[in-house]
Specification:
6-stranded mixed sheet, 6 strands, 35% strand, alpha+beta
């Protein structure tokens, strides 16, 4: 598990590389896919539903407001870059390091 490779500090904000798998049985973080965090999403990739669910799910996971999570790139793709405000890289890494335990 290579947690730091999917996380970057962007001027006090945290950028995460995400690999999404839409239409899963439930929404969950399942580990890593290459150098990206893999997230299964129950929502279909239709009319932004999966993107909205991803942002809401990440906000709950990292305990930030939904407005503090936004997709920087990849809105129509499985590979996405997401920006999270209100948390440090260290706080995000600590949360993600618990995935494999």
């Amino acid at each position: 598990m290579n947690v730091p490779s999917c996380i970057k500090d962007r001027f006090g904000k945290v950028e995460l590389r995400i690999y999404c798998q839409p239409r899963a049985s439930k929404t969950e973080i399942v580990g890593f896919h290459g150098d990206a965090l893999k997230v299964r999403l129950a929502a279909p990739p239709v009319e932004g539903e999966a993107n909205a669910e991803l942002c809401l799910f990440l906000a709950r996971c990292f305990e930030v407001s939904r407005q503090n999570v936004r997709i920087l790139s990849g809105k129509g793709a499985r590979q996405k870059r997401v920006l999270i405000e209100g948390k440090t890289v260290q706080e995000i890494q600590a949360c993600l390091s618990q995935i494999g335990e």
